[in-house]
Input
Amino acid sequence: MDGLKYHRILLKLSGEAMAGEDGFGIDPQRALDIARRVRNVREMGVDVAIVIGAGNLWRGRVGLNRGMDQATADYMGMLATVMNALALMDALESVDVVTRVQSAIEMRSVAEPYIRRRAIRHLEKGRVVIFGGGTGNPYFTTDTAAALRATEIGAEILIKATKVDGVYDSDPKRNPNAKKFDKITYIDAINQRLQVMDTTALTLCMENKLPILVLNLFDESVLPRAIQGEALGTLVDDD
Output
């Protein structure tokens, strides 16, 4: 399709994007809504890879607060991301989008092991690839997994889908005077602790010159318009 600014993207979703009204569990209708948005982008001719979190199923800090070993809590979170990945795969295939799940933690009965070249080949064939299992290592977030996988597959941009329309200097739900950034540098995002992504993920994107775009996932028109180059959300870049 002509007019595309980005031809290969990595979409970072929070686990909460899949949750029901109470913020927990997997809501099939939410998964289907996301699947339709992804299908629309895929039909534009864009290669789409996805990393999804697990906050709707497991919050590691809850375990930590009760004395759980952090590595154990992190591994539980990684397993939960695979559950979300499988649910999203099912929703995508229900709307005729061929999808593959690759996991950094091997579980061959339900997902392919993560192999970079195979993932790229899936994208080249028009399949959506969902990366589960985080990085496969404790102490790293799914933000870092998204930055790592985006770099590995040659994504042109990492799109972080949220419930707000960009990055603000404070919580816009609590502060009606919060200022929205149309564009910000990696360094400023880190120094101002804006919580775009964690510091490790931001640094990885900065070192590999991978731009980050923060958008409102729940505005159906935003993602296709942004991929065509319209200035929406907040762009985190070097300039």
In short: The mean pLDDT is 94. Helices lie at 28-43, 60-65, 70-94, 116-124, 142-153, 186-191, 199-207, 222-227. The domain at 8-237 is CATH 3.40.1160.10 (Carbamate kinase). The longest strand covers residues 8-13.
